[in-house]
Amino acid sequence: MSAAATSAVPSLDVLVVGAGPTGLALAAQLQRYGARFRVIDRHLDRARESRALAVQPRTLEVLAPFGVSDELVRRGNPAVQLRLHLPGRTVRLPLFDLGVADTPYPFLLFLSQAETEGVLGRHLTDNGTLLERGTELVELADERDGVACRLRKRDGPEEMLTARYVVGCDGARSTVRKQAGIGFEGHAYPQTFLLADLEVDGLEPGAAHACMTEAGMVFFFPLETPAGWRMLAMRPPGAPGADTTVNLALLQSLVDRYVSMPLRLHDPVWMTDFRIHHRGAVRYRSGRIFLAGDAAHIHSPAGAQGMNTGIQDALDIGWKLALVCRGAAPDVLLDSYEAERAPVGRSVLRFTDRAFKVATSGHPLIRLARTRIAPRVAPLVLRPQPLRAAAFRRLGQLAVHYRRSPATTAGPRVPRRGPKAGDRLPDRPRGLQAVVAGPGYHLLLCGPANAWDRGRISSALEGRDALLHVHTSGANAPWRGTAHCLVRPDGYIGYLAAGRDLDGLFRYLDQWLPRQG
Known about the structure:
The protein is of the alpha/beta class. It has helices spanning 3-6, 21-32, 57-63, 69-75, 113-126, 175-180, 248-258, 306-325, 335-360, 364-381, 385-395, 432-435, 454-461, 503-512; strands spanning 12-17, 37-41, 54-55, 77-79, 81-86, 89-94, 108-110, 131-133, 135-142, 147-153, 158-168, 184-201, 208-212, 217-222, 229-235, 264-281, 285-286, 289-291, 297-298, 409-410, 441-446, 468-474, 483-487, 493-498. Strands 1, 2, 8, 9, 10, 11, 17 and 18 form an 8-stranded mixed beta sheet that branches. 44% of the residues are buried.
């Protein structure tokens, strides 16, 4: 890399490498806070096939401040029922029909990744961001004052630039991760899977369908576009056509073999086969270089966790980079990214690995449990609402918390009930998340309006006016009695204390949002 490039003053704050859902979400966060950034992607066009197929409730919550969640819901299918088809009978299982009161999105939204990317991409371009497709990162070098990068355009010259930070959102084969020398540990599963977006005659619309036999399994998930259904099947070794290219005849033969219902497949939009990997980055940061999404963790699609985890990675690091770059937060805030998101990534890897092994094992006892015992026990186990609600929160990523983060503090006295410091702020009462949706930190004062020292509150705002907002919620709050809560820009609780003593709050603000000027 040339000396001119490596010694240049940074020309932008953040270079986002990769314009999939993770990179687009990161760009939306940077755009919101006025950071100088660019988004590049080596592909000439966005994904047109479905790939990831579901958006979790927490992802819809964190995307809502950008004004895109309602559009995603309008385009998707909020399925709440699962049909488990077994030889001779069908078991009906509820998914998310729990009446959960603390989220505006109490469902799993089946939606093609292509649609999710399209909505996020239009949000960015409508607000003036150019998505530089056909532009590839060739080389980078982490220097003292920035990251020197060499870019190559598909039909143009190479370009040298220096960014204060680089975030690799460029997938499982991440160039950023390789250039940064970050290990990617794990393995590939031996099974081969078939994937297709197509039309299916004979399926009850609106529900998800799992067809399970001892010979194998097929899943159908409801979509709206680019086709009515997403089909996922495991191709067992030695099955007819195992060495052939994926085509409609092969898919139909597997359905005829595994499914007791007479289903007819037709009008495929997209078909492929693939193997699943289980890998995680040994660290999420190297100096001024960060990883997010599939560049940091890839795993089986069990539970529809992948794309959602990546988007939430992006929205965690996005506001932190933006505030550090504008001088509103200390550099040490960036250390909290790995502290918060790496445990989430490891947890998702463990969960998906266990679910995948149970679903695909050929061991006779596990196969018996999967096809005979579990279908009979599941309706009984899932009948109690608390168990179903707990499962909903785990799968919907509503249970993700940062209680052990360095950027989380509990006051000397904390409310006995309600969310804790480090938890997501629930939407209870309804509309509370919308109140704190604006950029910056939000201070919630709970309890009688006359309980607060308005002079001290005004003092807290001094030098922080643009990034600190105060709301008086009275008794209509997630906590009983008098309490105060500082909500971070990503909707998680940074500081929480009971009572009216604001000294701990001021210390938190002085550390993470110091006064400007």
